[in-house]
Amino acid sequence: MAVKHELLLLLFVLSLCMHDATPDYHQALSKSILYFEAQRSGKLPTNQRVQWRGDSALNDGADAGVDLVGGYYDSGDNVKFGFPMAYTVTMLAWSAIEFGTQLHEKNELSNAQEAIKWGTDYLLKAHAASQVLYVQVGDGYSDHACWERPEDMNTPRNSYRIDNTKPGSDVAAESSAALAASSIVFQASDKNYANKLLTHAKQLFEFGHKHMGLYSDSIQQARGFYPSSGYDDELLWAASWLHRATGEQAYLDFLANSSTTGGKRTLFSWDDKFVGVQTLVSKLILEGKIKEEGIWGEYKKALDEFMCSMIQKGNGNNVKMSPGGMLWWQPWNNFQYTTSAMLILASHSNHLATSGATLHCPGATVSARQLISFIRSQVNYILGANPKKMSYMVGFSQVYPGQVHHRAASIVSIKKDRARVTCNGGFDSWFNRNAPNPNVIDGAVVGGPDAGDSYTDSRSNYQQAEPATVTTAPLVGVLALLA
């Protein structure tokens, strides 16, 4: 009996060790980049690795006489929304810039560059003239009324644009930031392409600055899905990346002459870029390129306050945490804010370590190593160290969401069954089917659990079960750091 008890005790200890084991960050990194191949729109390349997807939306832009084939679907639907797509590209590019060495060491840099280029190639097409930018293809309302594979869809594919009569400073500037950041990524490997990206980035910044307005005021069809709350942050964001890409004083002056630094923010997202601006400005301060005084000091103070509240060392106004240790913002796709915040922390930890500096919070002095420890806790939660003992990255670990709210993943691959899935037929045969999706969308990060760490694995639970490119993109750089 004693031997039996000892064996049971040993098995229990081993199970604890397995639960507390460090996740395979390298595998998670590879899957996070692979995910973007599942989100591709257009004619798929010969080296496509996600084989259950096929060509789709090959006539996009035809209604406007332009080629808008390509780019990414934003989440679990089949619309191409330019605002989150540009942010996705910026996050991928920032990941590659900040953690390019680590990506290279893990043999993932070329895959990351391909993911970026799939987005930038589309943004170049969308920027059809100096003051014309196509910012949406497809209609969200008719698309959401159907449950179809992108390869089958027959919903309207109308093209929507901003121009000098219908401004969109926010989306123009975010597209500028995406192209400017990406130009840095390709500067060493393809200088001509990098220069082309930079030319378009400059034009888009000027366009957004010259013709002020919210894109979701100009494009009513975007308002119900990705409305913009302002454009000051995107213009500063674009200027920050253009300065980093060119070193030109004019862009630094734009930041210096701003009427706002954003102040302390509560999150960083596709709609709020102030924290990103503050991070890039703080980098310049740490490098000694500008002095921590005046408006520059305001930018850095705001960033420090954001980070202190994130790591629970703020002055009584920290970001809420769930009982299981998850940062919590809101019920709908909460993880998008987690991954974006972790890229901020990861990048700033790099900047602090390089300059030998620390983060000063109200109750503590925090080192770069401690920031990384906090990042690891949040990433581990996503990858399975949570009360549900479930990975919220699809395809990672043994237990992960099976009923992901994603049209393409939830319907049999067109390569297995070419019979057309109709608009309503998709709901009848696939959406309402109480079984795991037939296709595993590796690397997709679902919206995540609620404030009490509860998660329901159901396709109809779109607030928790739908993945999005804006969620996984920042995670690429974070995982590269940890891998």
Automatic annotation (TrEMBL):
The kind of enzyme this is, by top-level EC class, is hydrolase
Q: Where is the active site?
A: H405
Keyword Electron transport set for record: no
What UniProt keywords are attached to this protein's entry? Carbohydrate metabolism, Cellulose degradation, Glycosidase, Hydrolase, Polysaccharide degradation, Signal
Q: Give the matching InterPro entries.
A: 6-hairpin_glycosidase_sf, 6hp_glycosidase-like_sf, Glyco_hydro_9, Glyco_hydro_9_His_AS
For this protein, the record's Pfam families field holds: Glyco_hydro_9
Known EC number(s)? Answer: 3.2.1.4
What the record says about family reads: Belongs to the glycosyl hydrolase 9 (cellulase E) family.
What protein name does the entry list? Endoglucanase
Species for this entry:
Dioscorea cayennensis subsp. rotundata
